[in-house]
Amino acid sequence: MRLVIQRVEQAEVHIKSQLFSSIKKGLLIFSGIEEEDNDEDIQWLASKVCNMRLFSDEEGKMNLDVKQVNGNILLVSQFTLLASTKKGNRPSFIKAARPEKAIPIYKKFIKTLELMLEKSIQTGEFGADMQIKLINDGPVTIIMDSKVRE
Q1: Has this prediction a pTM greater than 0.85?
Q2: At the top level of CATH, which class does the domain 2-145 belong to?
Q3: What are the structural domain ranges in the chain?
Q4: 112 an active-site residue?
């Protein structure tokens, strides 16, 4: 599973020109799911997301996690994160899981984040054409991959 995590002041998902979900201060997370992803990937990434110190303390140092600042999470599925650009000019998405595999993993990732965060999170709609509006705070953007674990 590959994530792009952005610290935001606010973020919104619009579908068909209608507001679908939104958060104030917190993390906007784009998630790409691979065929090989499993519960171990979900647990590792959810733990990292909820405990990663991306928010500033009183001294301006990134020492606080999303829970400590009472932040929110907006999770958006995005299979294009798994694009391979090795050959030609058209990206290949062969690594991306098919919906029948990806949707249950996406739903389990949502539930795992909610349990670890101890509150509900906001989401996009899997497979929908979405427009995302955000105000990146910092900017702070982190890329994580459960297969690389850097």
Answers
A1: yes
A2: alpha beta
A3: 2-145
A4: no
